[in-house]
Amino acid sequence: MEASDYAKLGIKAVRNVAISAWKPALIFTKAKGSTIWLNDKPYLDFASGPGVSNIGYNHPAVLNAVKEVLDNDEAGWSGNMYLNKYQVMLAEKLSAITPGKYDKQVFFSNSGGEAVEAAILACLKARPERRGMVTFAGDFHGRLGFCRTATSSKPLHVEGLNGGINRAFYLIFPSENPETMAKKEFLDCIQTSRQYLRYVQSSIGPFIKEINFALLELVQGEGGINVAKKRMMQVLIQYLHENQVTVIIDEVQTGLGRTGHMWASDFYEVEPDIMTVAKALSGGVIPIGATIFRSGFGYRKRAEHCNTFGGYPQACAAGLKSLEIVESENLAQASHEMGLVLRGGLWEARSNSLKAQELVSDISGLGLMSRMTFTDAKTRDKVVEEAMNRGLLLMSTGEQSTRLMPPLIITYDEIKKATEILMKAIETHS
Asked: What are the Cα distances from residue 69, in Å, to 83, 86, 171?
């Protein structure tokens, strides 16, 4: 296509496509490996969707798995209404490789938001008398939550919900790399896990019998790639379990090797009652969400919760193949090793640039879930824009950081290239 053709598409988009995060001047045209093309121009992708393309874009094995489903006429009415072999196989696989040596059951949906919604719904229906929740300030768990209020076709859809959540408590995230000075000053007052537990007890202790569930990110994504202190997270989860609070760990962005472990829960050595998974489970091809329940924490009645496309054959086949690739290519270990290479290279480049020392306050992360923190948001945004002009795709996060989240198949040469582009973008800042 010519440049004028993309301009025409942009004009049509402004007229016909609802406003979202897109820019009318940019049309996605192609993706392969660690590269995407916008208006036929290649960009090294350090955003990954975010966290969708862990195995790279259009992996041939995933495409072939989906093609096999289509070629065998196995696509069609399936999912939550009728079982299919791919759904059963993926549920068995997820039950086997997620944290916890207990029996599990899996509910399939179409996105991370739906996976979280399914988890919350199960908690509220199980204990409708406890209508409080706790989460971290700065967490991101999706954008759903209104439609059930308007649903009245069957009593089953709202049975036991009693108006939903009536109290929400937001704890300070126990970050080992606080993004701003204000957060650092607060956390400097909480140096030990015992002190953090006292803070938690004083914050939610008086209301603990009202709290039904805790919904937690172990590494905050949208909130700024904040990595939790391991022992503080463990102490919090132990306290919640001791007080019969159901613990939901949101691994929608951290799952499938992103943090240098198959699951962030593995690194933190915690066992959730419920885990949510999505994004990279899709292989970057077909959206899928999964909610993994410890046995006894799921739904109790047939049709208590369902959806149209959850557990669809193509999506589950893609999920199975994606997990197989992450395991067979040892991508969790690759994420750990390349994350160290990336952050180490960026720190070295920063030390050789007076401009970078002036503008960049931190480089941190876990695995290939990393960030570069700038002195302010305006500087961050200018650097991200300039990097894109030079062929490197980044995404902003938190208050003043950018995510550094390439596919887990990223190479040394690609990391070197990205580092060079990023440093040039910083050097040109005025």
From this structure: 15, 9, 45
CA 326 to CA 281: how far, in whole Å?
10
Q: Which pair of tokens denotes residue 401?
A: 């950081």
Q: Which residues pair with 374 in a beta bridge?
A: 360
pLDDT tens string 9-21: 989 999 999 999 8
Domain count within the chain:
2
pLDDT tens-digit map of 371-410: 999 999 999 999 999 999 999 999 999 999 999 999 999 9
Are 110 and 13 in the same domain? no
Which residues are within 8 A (CB) of 103 and not within 5 positions of it... i.e. 6 or more apart? 95, 294, 295
Contact partners, residue 59, CB within 8 Å, separation at least 6:
283, 284, 321, 322, 325
**Calpha distance 58→262 (Å, rounded):** 21
Residue carrying structure tokens 């805790």: 214
Does the pTM of the predicted model rise above 0.85? yes
Backbone torsion region of residue 309, taken as left when φ is above 0, otherwise alpha when ψ lies between -120 and 50, otherwise beta:
alpha
Other CB atoms within 10 A of residue 391 CB? 14
Q: Do 242 and 359 reside in the same domain of the chain? A: no
Question: Do 309 and 340 lie in a common domain?
Answer: no
Secondary structure element (H or E) that encloses residue 70, with its range: helix 60-71
Please report, for the domain that includes residue 172, its CATH number. 3.40.640.10
In CATH, what number is assigned to the domain containing residue 27? 3.90.1150.10
Rounded CA-CA distance 344/331 in Å is 19
Contact 203, 171 (CB under 8 A): yes
Beta carbons of 335 and 257 less than 8 angstroms apart: yes
CA distance 320 to 90: 6
SS3 380: helix
Q: Which domain holds residue 190?
A: 64-328
**Structural element, H or E, at residue 198:** helix 193-204
